[in-house]
UniProtKB/TrEMBL annotation:
Pfam families: CysG_dimeriser, NAD_binding_7, TP_methylase. This is Siroheme synthase. It catalyses: precorrin-2 + NAD(+) = sirohydrochlorin + NADH + 2 H(+). Pathway: Porphyrin-containing compound metabolism; siroheme biosynthesis; sirohydrochlorin from precorrin-2: step 1/1; Porphyrin-containing compound metabolism; siroheme biosynthesis; precorrin-2 from uroporphyrinogen III: step 1/1. Residues 148-205 form the Sirohaem synthase dimerisation domain. Belongs to the precorrin methyltransferase family. It comes from Henriciella pelagia. Keywords: Cobalamin biosynthesis, Lyase, Methyltransferase, Multifunctional enzyme, NAD, Oxidoreductase, Porphyrin biosynthesis, S-adenosyl-L-methionine, Transferase. The keyword Repeat does not apply. InterPro entries: 4pyrrol_Mease, 4pyrrol_Methylase_sf, 4pyrrole_Mease_sub1, 4pyrrole_Mease_sub2, CobA/CysG_C, NAD(P)-bd_dom_sf, Siro_Cobalamin_biosynth, Sirohaem_synt_dimer_dom_sf. The lineage of its organism: Bacteria, Pseudomonadati, Pseudomonadota, Alphaproteobacteria, Hyphomonadales. The gene is cysG. Residues 219-429 form the Tetrapyrrole methylase domain.
Length: 466
């Protein structure tokens, strides 16, 4: 590590800035985010200085020595080399560390790329080797650190004395902070509900101070999307990484499971066609038991939990058991597959509505669907779990009046590396599936829009040949 990261405390501090150009202005803007005052060494009094009137004092260059006395640090943003060197020497003579803008050889410290979330500050430095890279890393961190994480830190700061007084044991105190800052209190702050966060803090503190038992944890029912890990929401990502235990379905992709903390438990409860690893009631019991042990529980489901995902039943069971359950939506496979195949589910010219149905039926049975409604024109029908019943679906739709040449797309493992697509007409649905060796998980997309990806491809090929 060639650089040592440290954070200056800025209360009652002052910073000296040499210069009046754009670099001086940028640094003044940055310093003005702290509580420090600014002493600007300039002989020209630039217009921008007025913006910081309440905390900025101007000094002429012959007063620089006075201004530097006791400064936390100095920034030299001067154009000329000789002036910059003289300013650095002046600061060094007073023992003040210096950053000289664009003159790395004169710097005692560099100014990193900064992510400011109130009390939480993250800084990224590359030692001047690649500032652009530092900015990119900061942008990535920005998406990972929730907007209100600084508010969460301030809340912890406010409660710290009360918590210390109420919970003597250090380990228990750590459990308290883990359960609040990674649990329901944190969720309330992130959701902007400060009143609820305060109430939950008080409630949890009372529970922790009154008994040795750990309060019941929360359960997050989280949509993992169709498979591509980049389609996970930021909230899902955060909760997965915070979880103590993750109960997951078969449809959750391995790349997403890799995001679970290494020390967290992963429990497969998934179902695939005809193979129920854990019955639904059993899943409810597992979720309830884990929450009662005080664990942060994530129930991870493919796609969206409320689209043919039995998420509703899990919410009900948890509520009945008195356990807090929240739901994080995921990108349903219908949207993921359509986007991946560049197939618009609605289209001004072809489909004014889209309907999601399940093709599931008891063995050998017929899906219980409103066939005449699904056979109407100018719409798209997306069938989940319809591979096994594709023959019956094709037959029933045609019986209800859907023309046999209606386009159909079948998409298996949509958004994953092994995605397969097949296109054809509703009359040939079974043979289309068979010819491509599609077994599922797959969606059937029925309607005029299903021919658009192929038409687009033909157009591209025609253009290339022309
Ligand atoms: C029990 S449902 C769950 C649906 C899920 N909740 C959702 O929103 O996508 C399972 C069915 O979803 C569809 N499915 C899920 N992921 C898929 C994917 N990546 N590609 C194609 N179909 C998928 C298949 O029809 C599969 O049989």
């Amino acid at each position: 590590m060639r650089q040592f990261p440290a954070f200056f405390l800025m209360d009652d501090a002052h910073v000296v800035i040499f210069g009046d150009g754009i670099n001086a202005e940028r640094k003044a803007r940055l310093v003005a985010k702290t509580n420090a005052s600014i002493r600007l060494i300039t002989d020209t009094a630039p217009d921008w200085a007025a913006e910081y009137r309440d905390r900025l004092e101007m000094f002429s260059s012959d007063q620089a020595e006075n201004a530097l006395f006791g400064a936390r640090f100095a920034i030299v943003a001067l154009d000329g080399d000789a002036e910059a060197e003289a300013a650095v020497a002046l600061a060094h003579a007073q023992g003040v560390p210096v950053n000289a803008v664009d003159r790395k050889h004169l710097c005692d410290f560099t100014v990193p790329s900064i992510l400011d979330r109130g009390d939480i500050v993250a800084a990224v430095a590359t030692g001047g080797a690649a500032p652009v890279l530092a900015k990119d890393i900061r942008a990535k961190l920005e998406t990972l650190l929730p907007e209100r994480i600084g508010d969460l830190a301030s809340l912890a700061q406010r409660w710290r004395p009360a918590v210390k007084a109420a919970i003597e044991d250090e380990t228990r105190r750590r459990h308290f902070w883990e359960s609040t800052l990674r649990g329901a209190v944190a969720e309330a702050v992130h959701a902007g509900d400060d009143a609820r966060a305060e109430a939950l803090m008080a409630e949890t503190l009372e529970q922790f101070s009154q008994s040795d038992q750990t309060p019941v944890g929360a359960v997050h029912i989280v949509g993992a999307g169709p498979g591509d890990p980049e389609l996970l929401t930021l909230k899902a990502f955060r909760l997965i990484q915070q979880a103590d235990i993750v109960f997951y379905d078969k449809l959750v992709s391995p790349e997403i499971l890799d995001m679970v903390r290494r020390d967290a438990e992963r429990v497969p409860v998934g179902k695939s066609k005809g193979e129920h690893l854990v019955p639904q009631d059993g899943i409810h019991e597992l979720l309830i038991a884990a929450a009662r042990e005080g664990k942060r529980v994530v129930r991870l489901k493919g796609g969206d939990p409320f689209i043919f995902g039995r998420g509703g039943e899990e919410v009900d069971a948890l509520r009945e058991a008195g356990i807090e359950a929240d739901v994080v939506p995921g990108i349903t496979s219908a949207l993921g597959c359509a986007a991946s195949a560049r197939l618009p589910l609605t289209h001004r010219d072809h489909a004014q509505s889209v309907t999601f149905v399940t093709g599931h039926a008891q063995k050998g049975g017929v899906p219980d669907l409103d066939w005449p409604a699904l056979a109407r024109p100018h719409q798209t029908v997306v069938v989940f779990m319809g591979v096994g019943t594709a023959g019956i679906i094709s037959e029933k739709l045609r019986e209800a009046g859907l023309p046999g040449d209606t386009p159909v797309a079948v998409i298996e493992n949509g958004t994953r590396e092994n995605e397969k697509r097949a296109f054809g007409q509703i009359a040939d649905l079974s043979s289309v599936i068979e010819a491509r060796g599609i077994k599922g998980p797959a969606l059937l997309i029925i309607g005029a829009v299903a021919s658009l990806p192929r038409e687009a491809q033909t157009l591209i090929i025609e253009k290339a040949l022309a």
